[in-house]
């Protein structure tokens, strides 16, 4: 199947939050398909702005690029995403990144292997949003019988992005297309919405890989970069 192009807008966090309502409504009224928000340290929350933009609009799809996983617990991230996905079905695209390492260090959240953390967070979040019960003992992500009470009615795409060839390869191995438009790759597992249709998603145990095989080099991301990824060339839709 050939790909199609979606037209959208980006609300950068350098703009004050009070300008978001007018921009979101204008994008919706103009017939744009997507509005992408941008969580950066330390201007604005991506989840809070996404919730507001969705409430102010009728049909616009809203994505957040990117949510830095070192600042988050995977269960809490999944709960917030699931709530938005149930309130605004089909209109939410979460996207994750490993964060700008200098900024992560400022808040005491820098880890030795940010790519391993991103990989584990992606695996955990996709499983939880797919309705699975997670038990995992990873290098960074640890869950013991965790399942969402209100998972989305259909497993959504969860995107990831990074800079540099090594980081992009690691994102590709995690099993999805990256948020900047990289090549589609095969999934390693497929919980998907079929589990909901069968009614078997409750109580299922999934053990995610620890990600210990990854050995990324020292992160050299410079502080002057405004975010860990770009939102140009955003995909129209990524399969769940």
Descriptive account of the structure:
By secondary structure, this protein is an alpha/beta fold. The chain has helices at 20-29, 46-56, 74-87, 101-106, 114-129, 165-173, 194-198, and strands spanning 8-11, 34-37, 61-68, 92-97, 133-137, 142-146, 159-160, 205-206. The strands form 2 sheets. The protein has a 5-stranded parallel sheet, with helices on one face. Helix 1 packs across helix 2 and helix 3 (74-87) packs across helix 5. The radius of gyration is 17 Å and the shape is globular. It starts with 7 loop residues before the first strand and ends in a 34-residue tail after the last strand.
Helical region count? Answer: 7
Instruction: Give the tally of structural domains.
Output: 1
Q: What's the CATH class label?
A: Alpha Beta
Q: How many DSSP-defined strands?
A: 8
Assign the CATH topology: TIM Barrel
Termini distance? 16 Å
Question: Strand-and-helix sequence, N→C?
Answer: EHEHEHEHHEEEHHE
> What is the CATH H-level superfamily?
Luciferase-like domain
């Amino acid at each position: 199947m050939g790909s199609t192009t979606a037209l959208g807008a980006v609300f950068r966090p350098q703009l004050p939050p009070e300008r978001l309502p007018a921009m979101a409504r204008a994008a919706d009224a103009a017939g744009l398909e997507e509005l992408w928000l941008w969580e950066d340290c330390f201007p604005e929350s991506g989840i809070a702005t996404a919730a507001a933009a969705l409430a102010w609009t009728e049909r616009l799809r809203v994505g957040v690029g990117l949510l830095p996983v070192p600042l988050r617990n995977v269960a809490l991230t999944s709960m917030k995403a699931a709530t938005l996905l149930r309130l605004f079905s089909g209109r939410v695209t979460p996207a994750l990144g490993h964060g700008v390492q200098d900024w992560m260090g400022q808040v005491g959240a820098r880890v030795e292997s940010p790519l391993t953390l991103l990989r584990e967070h992606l695996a955990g979040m996709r499983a939880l949003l797919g309705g699975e019960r997670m038990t995992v003992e990873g290098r960074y992500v640890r869950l013991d019988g965790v399942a969402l009470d209100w998972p989305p009615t259909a497993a959504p795409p969860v995107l990831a992005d990074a800079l540099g060839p090594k980081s992009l390869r690691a994102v590709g191995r995690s099993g999805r297309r990256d948020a900047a438009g990289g090549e589609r790759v095969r999934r390693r597992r497929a919980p998907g919405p079929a589990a909901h249709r069968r009614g078997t998603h409750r109580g299922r145990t999934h053990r995610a890989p620890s990600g210990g095989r990854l050995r990324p080099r020292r992160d050299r991301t410079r502080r002057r970069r405004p975010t860990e990824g770009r939102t140009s060339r955003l995909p129209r839709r990524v399969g769940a």
